[in-house]
Amino acid sequence: MTNTQQHVKVPTQGEKITMQEGKLQVPAHPIIPFVEGDGTGPDIWRASVRVLDAAVEAAYGGERRIEWLEVYAGEKSVQVYGEGEWLPQETVDAFDEYLVGIKGPLTTPVGGGIRSINVALRQELDLYACVRPVQYFEGVPSPLKRPGDVNMVIFRENTEDIYAGIEYRAGTPEAAKVRDFLMNEMGVTKIRFPETSAFGVKPVSREGTERLVRAAIQYAVDNGRKNVSLVHKGNIMKFTEGAFRDWGYELAKREFGAVELDGGPWLKLPNGIVIKDVIADNFLQQILLRPTEYDVIATLNLNGDYISDALAAEVGGIGIAPGANINYVTGHAVFEATHGTAPKYAGKDVINPSSVILSGEMMLRYMGWTEAADLILRGLDQTIQQKVVTYDFARNMEGATEVKTSQFADKIIENMRNA
Ligand SMILES: NC(=O)C1=CN([C@@H]2O[C@H](COP(=O)(O)OP(=O)(O)OC[C@H]3O[C@@H](n4cnc5c(N)ncnc54)[C@H](OP(=O)(O)O)[C@@H]3O)[C@@H](O)[C@H]2O)C=CC1
Ligand SMILES: O=C(O)CCC(=O)C(=O)O
Ligand SMILES: [Mg+2]
């Protein structure tokens, strides 16, 4: 740890995960930092950590164990560190130093106040790929007729686009300056109400696009997937979202040997993987009507945010939607659910912990602890098939036994141990 350490208590046992020659080196007792999260975060974390520990214990019988290191962000951080300390430096340092971590959701106010701590952490650690697999667990209630057809992995660009937070509030001198620059120096005439407009800037770079698309295509290659779709709104935002598509296609040709399919623009890799593109609004209707045609998705930050929740709903909702923020070059990874803090359920022990449990499952798999990860999938799968579920699934599932967050975790652990 750095010498700024104030509240983080590093476990006396355990070692760091490191990256050597592009490969993650995971000791038997890795120290893993976690943030509990705001709102329902504590309920979810309490349940999830028990499932993760039980899976590791059941898989490796005490030879491996995670040494958890609590770090603080959000409301708990303000309690521990004091006013204004939403994301202390030692939290960022811990995620940086220990390489792999996990976090619960953190609150972001609407229309003012602090900017997102979740986004800040991704940017600080340069976790450029937000990876969100969308898979169906048999028996989960879904609005689709054939939810089993949905099997996609979203690669959402995680460091730029309008999430860069470059915005100027209407009526401020900064907004006036941007307006004057656009109108007087750039010859812009199409700002409909210039005096009362706010302005936002959308940076999209070739580097940012290429590293994200590279990760998506590599994932498709490594996992035998059939296609990668570049999802964009490039007909309207030609130089940002349109460029994302063009840079993506160029990279596929240059680095993966893709060639044009029937005169382009779609491409085909030597191993048969198709690289295609689709405009975002069309994509959102196609994933409902023809989900089998989509597989790995590479998209920009805002599109990826919307698409994540829309796709999660198809397989039962954001209560079962995991994710990871990854820098594939440095190995840094912070695992987190797709959902937010769901504050109305905070402290009630009713919320579905599956998204964080499955984010933990992704983390174990990323660490190479596949036996423990597999046990979690089996435990969760069986629990759902026994119709022992939290309120969100119970309300649409006939004959369900509705249980609390903690009881749901108990049942997963029981099923895992009997697996
Ligand atoms: N990465 C992060 O930390 C994220 C943080 N946020 C932040 O969270 C706060 C709340 O955001 P909001 O837009 O309400 O979105 P939320 O994802 O927190 O909740 C929206 C709704 O989704 C359902 N839901 C969410 N989580 C679960 C779960 N674990 N199990 C079952 N159902 C769930 C609930 O639906 P129902 O009411 O039908 O039961 C809930 O009311 C905001 O401050 C936002 O900025 C948002 C997204 C990500
Ligand atoms: O940071 C936030 O509050 C919201 C982020 C979000 O919705 C997401 O990353 O999916
Ligand atoms: Mg979101």
Give a structural overview.
With 419 residues, the protein is an alpha/beta fold. Helix content is 39%, strand content 16%. It is built from 13 helices and 18 strands. The chain has helices at residues 41-60, 75-81, 89-98, 117-124, 173-185, 206-222, 238-256, 280-289, 301-314, 354-366, 370-385, 391-394, 405-417, and strands at residues 18-20, 23-25, 31-35, 67-70, 100-103, 129-135, 151-157, 167-168, 199-200, 227-232, 259-260, 267-268, 274-279, 296-299, 324-326, 333-336, 388-389, 401-402. The strands form four sheets. Strands 4-3-5-16-15-6-7-14-10-13-12-11 form a twelve-stranded mixed beta sheet, with helices on both faces. The chain has a two-stranded antiparallel ribbon with strand order 1-2. Helix 1 crosses helix 10. The longest helix has 20 residues, at 41-60. Bound molecules: NADPH dihydro-nicotinamide-adenine-dinucleotide phosphate (NDP), 2-oxoglutaric acid and magnesium ion. Residues 105-108, 118, 317-319, 336, 339-342, 351-352, 355, 392 line the site of NADPH dihydro-nicotinamide-adenine-dinucleotide phosphate (NDP). The site of NADPH dihydro-nicotinamide-adenine-dinucleotide phosphate has 17 residues, from loops.
In short:
It catalyses: D-threo-isocitrate + NADP(+) = 2-oxoglutarate + CO2 + NADPH. This protein is of the alpha/beta class and 419 residues long.
